[in-house]
Amino acid sequence: MAKEKSVYVCTECGGTSPKWLGKCPSCGAWNTLIEQVAAPASAGGGQNRFGTQFAALAGASELAVLSEIEASDVARTPTGLDELDRVLGGGIVAGGVTLIGGDPGIGKSTLLLQAADALQNAGQLALYVTGEESGAQVAMRARRLGLERSQVQVMAEIQLEKILATLDANRPAIAVIDSIQTVYSDQLTSAPGSVAQVRECAAHLTRFAKASGTAVVLVGHVTKEGALAGPRVLEHMVDTVLYFEGDTHSSFRLVRAIKNRFGAVNEIGVFAMTERGLRGVANPSAIFLSQHSEPVPGSVVLVTLEGTRPMLVEIQALVDDGGPSPRRLSVGLERDRLAMLLAVLHRHAGVACMDQDVFVNAVGGVRITEPAADLAVMLAIASSLRGKPLPKGFIAFGEVGLAGEVRPAPRGQERLKEAAKLGFSVAIVPKANAPKKGAIEGLTIHAVERIEQALDAVRGLE
Ligand code: TYD
Ligand code: MG
Question: Whose CA is closest to atom 8 on ligand 1?
């Protein structure tokens, strides 16, 4: 293929430069030039700064009145893995593009190979493009998964143009690109894995998906900071973004939808990594609890709501004498929120941690983003600071505001019922979440409106 010239375009002002420069020649911003394929220039027609030719485009698209367009529900093909289908909103969608991110070794390739095989068995053509591993390595994984007779088509290739040509010739129902960071296009001089390459390749694959009806799944690596490499450049381009979460030291893995044009967001799928691949966990509510034979200080069980299912997660806090600049560290919870909660604890409940290191952790590598975790985090911190455990069978949830008020969490009744079902017996929850009439069998509920009331209630339980 003839090599087209590439240009460097400023992400700030849209100015261009024929070669890479640290500083944009047009607006003077630093590090904003990103390589792009230059649109071929043709005779006539003004070019705007993005290289589009008005003359060639004029009159090309048809208009339709919104009310006259038939709204059709998207058809989904179940992958055969129930937990994956749950996060996808029922299955893969023809022409849909899914990005799946996660730490190395967490199970992305395993999950997609299993899904590709299940689809192939259901009579769909599945094509697996491997850029990170050789065909032999993929075959070895397949053996391990018990898929030695798999009919999935495998291609070890990293050049975009060849991948697109093969996809076009075969028109599979699903194409897995493992991973997008290894794919490169001839049209750009930037290195594979660079923002320019990742964006360009993903854009071409997306266009192919839309034009052909092939469902494309892009595997993406996550940087240390937790963002998909190439500063989230792909998230807006694709239809669905899934992230793998979980601690590689434990066997449980969560797949979370953070964007889904075809389904609900924040739905999660739960898997266990076994000797023979990933297995769905249909009833995951109790998997993130550690087993303490006696209650320990600094541990509180939170009932969190992930997607449509309540789950119980142990929140641990450790408060210890700090140096001149005490540390605040959190794993699985937001650090900024932790700083805020410490300020609220001090101001409204007189619990001072200014000269203390504070560490908090959500057990099992889950990431908790909902503010309903606040109360559990604060009670865990107070418990660690005082060295007093909470009673056996204790749970909590509720959001805490800057004024020290305890706000209700969505779907409180469901959370309480799940806790009772798993044998928990004492709860401190926001007043608005306490059952209005009747009780939940086996559960003693302390309803609170303020953080200081919650701490008083804890003292009453000791
Ligand atoms: P993999 O799917 O290669 O991760 P990723 O593509 O996200 O980098 O998963 C690799 C890990 O999973 C590796 O540590 C081995 C483990 N594993 C199992 O425990 N059981 C299995 O059946 C398979 C295939 C992998
Ligand atoms: Mg992999």
Answer: 105
Q: Judge if the beta carbon of residue 278 lies within 6 A of ligand 1.
A: no
* Sheet strands (E) in 90-209: 92-93, 97-102, 126-130, 153-156, 174-178
Give the distance (Å) from ligand 2 centre to CA of residue 199: 20
> Per the structure block, which two tokens stand in for 148?
């030695």
Q: Is the CB of 275 under 6 A from ligand 1?
A: yes
- Distances from the Cα of 161 to the Cαs of 2, 204, 254, 313, in angstroms? 12, 9, 34, 46
pLDDT tens-digit series, residues 370-414: 999 999 999 999 999 999 999 999 999 999 999 999 999 999 999
Neighbouring C-beta atoms of residue 367, cutoff 10 Å: 16
pLDDT, tens digit (0-9, with 9 covering 90-100), for 400-412: 999 999 999 999 9
Asked if residue 43 has pLDDT above 50, the reply is no
Contact 180, 159 (CB under 8 A): no
Distance 88 CA to ligand 1 centre (A): 21
> Domain residues for 88?
77-282
φ, ψ (nearest 5 deg) of residue 196: -60, -45
Query: Could you tell me the distance, in angstroms and rounded to a whole number, from the CA of residue 106 to the centre of ligand 2?
Result: 8
CB 108 near ligand 1, within 6 Å: yes
**Smallest Cα–Cα separation from 264: which of 230, 305, 225?**
305
pLDDT of 53? 56
Are 170 and 305 part of one and the same domain?
no
Residue 327 pLDDT more than 90? yes
What is the spatial distance between Cα 287 and Cα 254, in angstroms, rounded to a whole number?
11
- Predicted confidence (pLDDT) per residue in 285-294, tens digit: 777 777 778 8
Which structure tokens are listed for 149?
Answer: 């007779």
User: Based on the structure, what is the number of domains in the chain?
Assistant: 3
pTM equals 0.79
Q: Identify the pLDDT of residue 46.
A: 46
Q: What region does 90 belong to: left with phi over 0, alpha with psi -120 to 50, or beta?
A: left
Residue identified by tokens 């020290």 is 404
Q: 259-271 burial string, b = 16+ CB within 10 Å, else e?
A: bbebbeebbbbbb
User: 69 in helix, strand or coil?
Assistant: coil
Give 41's pLDDT tier (boundaries 50, 70, 90). Answer: very low
Asked if residue 341 lies in contact with residue 377, where contact means CB atoms within 8 angstroms, the answer is yes
Residues 205 and 328 in one domain: no
Last residue of a domain, one of 282, 315, 338: 282
Q: Is the CB of 144 under 6 A from ligand 1?
A: yes
| CA 278 to ligand 2 centroid distance, Å | 14
pLDDT digits (tens, 9 = 90+) for 229-244: 544 678 889 999 998 8
